[in-house]
Write a structure and sequence with these properties.
The chain has 429 residues and is α/β, with parallel strands linked by helices. It contains 18 helices and 11 strands.
């Protein structure tokens, strides 16, 4: 392995061979521990109150731009996998005491592949490229590139993500630079893979649990995702619901699928995600959020709607029996929350109709929590004991139907949308 400089950026030139398994290609290379220590990260994953970033997030004053900037700014506050001190001590002892302290199995690392941003001439002779702006942008791009049996890894923090072998690397932390430079490791580089595939691999390797913890998988997918997909945006919104002191869900969502809380992140994502997606006209799903999602300037409106809606439900529940905060209401269980989410699009459209803005969707920010309470107040008269103790989809559907009848919104369906709601129609196919 050699170290080279290309236009003021230092790279490790790592000999690598290509491997193909089930049609998927990756590379196996040899790199010194000292080099790995300069380029690797082990993000993510721990989620506790110490990771909260939205406690004082004032959604009433924030714009979508403010939210996107906060997501971007806080990218560096990723979560670290828990360090197993027993395992690290064991590896340190192995390295210190054993005559043949070898690691014949490979570290597994992931990185973005940026070959598409270059051409062969650049690698053969970097000085031949005269576009200084292009070169500057290229060197700033995250990731590594591959050319003629070599991987070029920039010497900077977080160039590669170690997804297996974290503790083996930490076992070298007491070595000085000379000792680290004398120890080579085999590394399998997964380059250019889709983020969802990396999330699944990360999960399988580090959290080999059955059945699959969907909350954890959603969390990992969001952390790996660079673009603001529907799932990543939902993940951020659910973080706000869980962390913000004004939220009715404050510290009540099991973000990683376990711990305290009365609902999991996965349940909320799976229930809300269909409202972001185009749907068939015959479907019962009304894609109420799609219009707002496709325009970044309107995305914050989705969060505003959800917060005001559930604050209204919380107020109604607490006026009657104060069971929301204690998690004792049916509406704080998966049955009740599922039914409330199922009726949300119809409640939203009914409210817009009542406020004469059903074809002025950008005016929803003017809808107040009190307006939601006005339309939702009849739910307090529903006999909820019949829904206690179960969690089936059948019970969710039954409660949904009862809520729609009680609120008189059962006739707000796809036919109603087709005839009356122009801005929603383009999201059916």
């Amino acid at each position: 392995m050699e170290k080279i400089t290309i236009k003021n950026t230092t790279y490790y030139k790592v000999p690598a061979i290509g491997v193909s398994q089930k049609g998927v290609a990756y590379y196996v290379g040899v790199i010194s521990v000292s080099a790995l220590y300069k380029v690797f990260t082990v993000e993510p994953l721990i989620y506790t109150e110490s990771n909260y970033k939205y406690e004082d997030f004032d959604f009433t004053d924030f714009s979508s731009d403010d939210l996107l900037k906060k997501i971007e700014t806080d990218k560096e506050s990723h979560f670290q996998r828990e360090r197993d001190e027993t395992k690290v001590r064991s590896i340190k002892k192995y390295l210190a005491d054993e005559k043949y302290s070898l690691f014949p199995n490979s570290i597994i690392a992931a990185a973005k592949l940026k070959n598409s941003f270059m051409d062969d001439d650049f690698v053969k002779d970097p000085s031949s490229v005269r576009d200084e702006e292009w070169l500057a942008n290229f060197n700033k791009l995250p990731g590594i590139y591959y050319y003629e049996n070599y991987l070029y890894i920039p010497e900077r923090d977080n160039a590669i993500l170690v997804i297996d072998g974290q503790h083996r690397l930490l076992g070298f932390e007491d070595f000085d630079d000379v000792q680290k430079d004398e120890f080579d490791l085999i590394v399998s580089f997964l380059v250019g893979m889709d983020n969802s595939v990396l999330a699944q691999l990360f999960y399988t390797i580090n959290f080999n649990q059955k059945p699959v913890n969907k909350s954890l998988l959603f969390h990992l997918t969001s952390e790996f995702e660079e673009d603001l997909s529907e799932i990543k945006l939902l993940h951020e919104f659910i973080r706000i619901l869980n962390e913000n002191r004004k939220s009715p869900f404050c510290s009540k969502i099991k973000m990683l699928g376990k711990g305290q809380g009365f609902v999991s992140q996965a349940y909320l994502i799976e229930m809300l995600l269909p409202y972001f997606l185009k749907t068939k006209r015959k479907s019962k799903t009304i894609p109420i959020f799609r219009y707002y999602f496709v325009n970044e300037q309107r995305q914050i409106m989705i969060l505003n709607m959800l917060l005001k809606y559930f604050i209204a439900v919380q107020n109604i529940v607490n006026r009657n029996n104060k069971l929301w905060d204690a998690g004792g209401s049916v509406f704080t269980k998966t049955i009740g929350l599922g039914a409330l989410i199922k009726i949300f699009p119809k409640v939203m459209l009914a409210l817009m109709k009542r406020r004469n803005i059903e074809n002025a969707p950008d005016q929803i920010d003017n809808i107040k929590t009190a307006y939601f309470e006005d339309i939702l107040n009849p739910i307090s008269s529903i006999e909820l004991n019949q829904y206690i103790g179960g969690g089936s989809l059948g019970l969710v559907s039954r409660l949904r139907n009862e809520l729609e009848k009680k609120l008189q919104i059962e006739n707000i369906n796809n036919d109603y949308v087709a005839k009356n709601i122009e801005w929603l129609n383009e999201f059916y196919y």
